[in-house]
Amino acid sequence: MTEQETPEQLRLEIGQHFMAGFDGWELTPELERYLAEYKIGNIILFKRNVRDNGQLRRLCADIQRCVLANTGRGALIAIDQEGGSVVRLGEDAVNVPGAMAVAAAGGPELAREAGRMTGRQLRALGVNFDFAPVMDVNCDPANPVIGVRSYGDTPEQVSAYGAEMLLGLQEEGVLACAKHFPGHGDTNTDSHVGLPRVAKPARMLERTELPPFARAVEAGVAGIMTAHALFPALEPDEIPATMSRRIITGLLREKLGYDGLVTTDCMEMAAIAAYYGTARGAVAALQAGADLVLVSHTPDAAKEAICAAEAAVREGRIDREALRTSTERLLRVKETYRIGAEPPEYDNAQDMAAAEEMLRRSLAGYRLPGGSLPDVGPCPLFASGYSYRNAIVNNEQAQKLSFAERMAACLGGDSLPLGQAPSDEEIEALFAAAERHSALVLGSFNGHLKERQRVLLGRLDRVKVPVLVVAFGLPYDLSDTPAGVAGLAAWEYTERSIEAVRAVLTGERRAAGRIPVRLA
Fold first, then answer.
1. What is the CA 332 to chain-centroid distance, rounded?
2. pLDDT (tens digit, 9 = 90+) per residue, 14-40?
3. Residues 125-147: pLDDT tens digits?
4. What is the pLDDT of residue 185?
5. Are 343 and 57 in contact (CB under 8 A)?
């Protein structure tokens, strides 16, 4: 802090570098006092903040009013609206399929259209920053947090689709954010609950993880989000990319030439909070060159982080000139994107229909003789577990869905519930029941990540009637089945994907998509 700078002026500047979250559907007087006291310049919203379109539009207008009064600048209002399993908007909004489903449905031009539809919807609601697209390459089929959020398992495919998605968003006036730099695709730990380590040598990272982000930089992406993961080949000290000056300033800024916004992932995630502390991590991220620090959930954690950053500036631990350059970058982006402007009117009916059609086009067959699904006959047995939240980043399930129950109710036959870890006795009971039916249609949900489900999938050649496995989520379940078992990739375990499968099973639609990752 300079001699002429007052504590109020410093707080006003530091507040521009933080993005905070809160619970609830409206700004309470307590929240307004909190935003005013700490001069917070930006807000992140989650499903907990969204009831429907009308409520969200009012909330965003109130946020803009409050932040403008406190800071003199409009607020970046961000959301994770990737599509598929990671959406925050309500059922009356446009929710496009997830990245892998878009890649299954057609060429990169579909990702551009998905970006445009998402951008139109967000901008009309007052949300101006989308933490999408995911530019991670899903190198590891056992990755517990990326999976269907990725466009594929090659850097070429992820680069092509991700660049189109971000361009579509930004053409509609919404900032895009490529994540999670320098790459979260080859991890077997979820950074929400632990600290991942990517132990690849630098040359492999340069060949696989980095090209999609280089393409995003070339395409002019407004933001890039850092990964809470260790990359010892890039940063020899035991600190994650989010806190690494070598990675943020040395690699992203200087080597890749990026001059847009660098945002952190949430600093309350276990990878930071449990290993380093949220406040310490926030200061380190600013020292490393991040522009925007996310403290997405707890006001007390955000207060502590802001105070820690102010102390670091006063004590000279955060370079004042570098911070001023970062502030200018933030304000320039807000001016370029007209942050705080009145949102346009928008009739989303056409885009909602287009998003549903995109999902239907994404259903992809696997081992289908002659390209056709097996005939399930007059009395099929449908078996599945219930939907569940398989990663913290995904939406909480409003209700537990059962593919088996829905299909039996629609198409006849019987349904049988399955647990997430079926025992040998449960598997034998399923096979015995299948013998009394015309076919077995088994719904799986990322079963390749669960040992007992893999056992079930691997024994399906013992069933003497036709068998079809429908993979809701990642398609790797299908490669765990024996030869002769037909498969259908459906990408997400939702009402709309179940309806899309129903249409394929009845012959109303064809499974015309392609599986965009390599199956063993």
1. 27
2. 999 999 999 999 999 999 999 999 999
3. 999 999 999 999 998 888 878 89
4. 81
5. yes
Query: Which of 365-379, 395-409, 494-508 has the highest average model confidence (pLDDT)?
Result: 494-508
Active-site position among 140, 192, 319, 414: 192
Amino acid at 105: A
pLDDT at 512: 93
Residue 350's alpha-carbon distances to 357, 390, 394, in angstroms, are 11, 31, 26
Task: Find out whether 502 and 373 touch, Cβ atoms under 8 Å.
Answer: no
Task: Find tokens 């994404």 and name the residue.
Answer: 362
CB contact at 8 A, 87 and 127: no
d(CA 148, CA 150): 5
Euclidean distance between CA atoms 22 and 42, whole angstroms: 12
Active site residue 265: yes
pLDDT tier at 99, thresholds 50, 70, 90: very high
- Tell me whether the omega of the peptide bond preceding residue 374 falls within 30 degrees of 0, making it cis: no
The residue from 265, 351, 477, 480 that is catalytic is 265
Separation of alpha carbons 323 and 291, rounded Å: 8
Specify the DSSP class assigned to residue 91: T
Listed residue (459, 340, 259) closest to 76, CA to CA: 340
Indicate the burial class of 292 (C-beta count within 10 angstroms; 0-12, 13-18, 19 or more): buried
Dihedral angle of Cα 401, 137, 366, 443, to the nearest 10 degrees: -20
What residues are paired with 467 via a beta bridge? 440
Q: What angle do CA 122, 128, 132 make, to 5 degrees?
A: 75
| Domains identified in the chain and CATH numbers | 7-338 (3.20.20.300), 363-505 (3.40.50)
Sheet holding 486-489, edge to edge: 364-366, 486-489, 467-471, 440-444, 381-384, 414-417
Pairing between strand 486-489 and 364-366? antiparallel
| Cβ count within 10 A of residue 47 | 17
